[in-house]
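Task card 7
Instruction: Convert sequence to structure tokens.
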Amino acid sequence: MTAETGMRFSGLEATFDPATIGYLTGVGVTDGWACWEIGAGGGSIASWLAKQVGPTGSVLATDIDPRFIPASELAHLEVVRHDVTADAIPEARYHLIHARLVLSHLPQRGDVMVRLVQALRPGGWLVVEDFSGAFQRGTEPVGPAEARFRKVHAALGEFLARSNDDESDFASSLPHLLASLGLIDVGGEARVVFGRGGSAGARVMVAGLRQAGDRMIAAGLVDRPALDEAIAYLDTPSSVVSMPTMVSAWGRQAG
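Output:
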């Protein structure tokens, strides 16, 4: 699955990095900050942070599988394998902690978020981004091919929910969760990105279907012809597809 993982990471970076960088700029990332990028994926945001904080700052880029994070010549960018659910998390260290598309996959995310808040310095920011299905609207398909694709995409959502053993929509509650943890200056946005078939966003969805396809078929959620047709639809330039809604939320430790 290495090829699909690389495709997914590059597609996510191209689709969502501009907005993520906007949010991180908004919280004031600057020289000398200590930052932690959780689930760093392909490393693009960690690299951007390292440039912003300069040599007087530090960036820790962690992932359960850090092999997709490229080596950096910057001494203040450190890449470490780390399991946020089990490994040590220092307290009161970071000016910024950022996690994108990580916490929704963790059954222990409630406890993890408590520990992340404790890891913030006074005045430090926690920025969390994740996909949500709560804001999707069932607009009328414009043709039979789109209708069939939507069925397969809905089956993928059901499969992922089963895999996570969780029917809740974590992302839609993110601002409320950050406020309940005592953070101040809480805010958030929800965004839907549309693109043509073959776009970076479509490549993310292709990677997801390829990674989960055999298991979706085994679970009886879809058959092979429908799966293949959905992947072909995502590669068709005349198609227009929408990514799941990305919720981005932030809050600051008092002090």
